Amino acid sequence: MRLKRTDWIFILVAAAVIGALVLLSLMGREKKPVSAIPQHVGITADTPRADCLVCHDPSVEGSVAPLAPTHPHVWKKEQVACTTCHTVPPGGIEKVPVP
Ligand code: HEC
Ligand code: HEC
Predict the structure, then answer these.
(1) How crowded is residue 34: how many other Cβ atoms within 10 Å of its Cβ?
(2) 8 CA to centre of ligand 2 in angstroms
(3) Which of 1, 3, 37, 68 has its CA 20 to 30 A from that of 28?
(4) Band of the pLDDT at 98, cuts 50, 70, 90?
(5) 91 Cα to the center of ligand 2, angstroms
(6) Can you say whether the dihedral through the CA atoms of 36, 92, 28, 54 is positive or negative?
């Protein structure tokens, strides 16, 4: 099948729309570093995801800070560490500034 001129125009428009949607979905979605709060003391860049999920797993009832349903779904992959996206200061979080 040979593509007609109108087919190409359609493909280009569709690609532009998809690109715009992807851009929109990424906007305002900044990866926050692991915050310096008492609950995060002891966390380093090597802390395994299981340790984060103790408090952040949305499927566990009574989670301290469950992940929002809008959280990027990559977190569900076993092989992806939370700290890949949520950076920890070098040396880890040791002390927390007293407010
Ligand atoms: C002992 C419980 C606990 C553990 C373990 C824990 N967190 Fe948290 N985390 C919290 C609490 C409580 C908050 C604050 C939630 C709020 O402000 O609503 C929080 C907030 C966050 C935030 C949001 C920070 C911000 O600026 O809004 C990120 C990102 C985060 N945690 C990542 C992690 C990662 C990554 C790990 C594992 C390396 C982890 N947490 C382990 C309790 C924990
Ligand atoms: C692919 C990168 C990525 C991975 C992996 C990831 N996050 Fe996030 N996280 C984000 C982004 C981006 C946001 C901001 C979401 C927003 O603004 O809607 C976020 C937000 C958060 C927040 C703030 C509250 C919320 O639910 O939006 C917490 C807490 C958090 N992440 C914890 C974790 C934990 C714990 C893990 C590991 C199980 C993890 N993240 C894995 C990218 C990631």
Answers:
(1) 21
(2) 38
(3) 37
(4) low
(5) 21
(6) negative
Tell me what percent of the chain is helix, strand and coil, each rounded to the nearest 5.
Answer: 40, 0, 60
pLDDT at 21 over 70: yes
% of the chain with per-residue pLDDT over 70: 96
Q: What amino acid occupies position 32?
A: K
Domain ranges for the chain: 5-85
Compute the distance between CA of residue 43 and CA of residue 98 in angstroms, rounded to an integer.
18
Substitution candidate for ligand 2 out of 75, 78, 93 with most atoms within 8 A of CB:
75
**Span 3-22, mean pLDDT?**
94
Which tokens in the block code for residue 55? 């408090």
Type of residue numbered 17? V
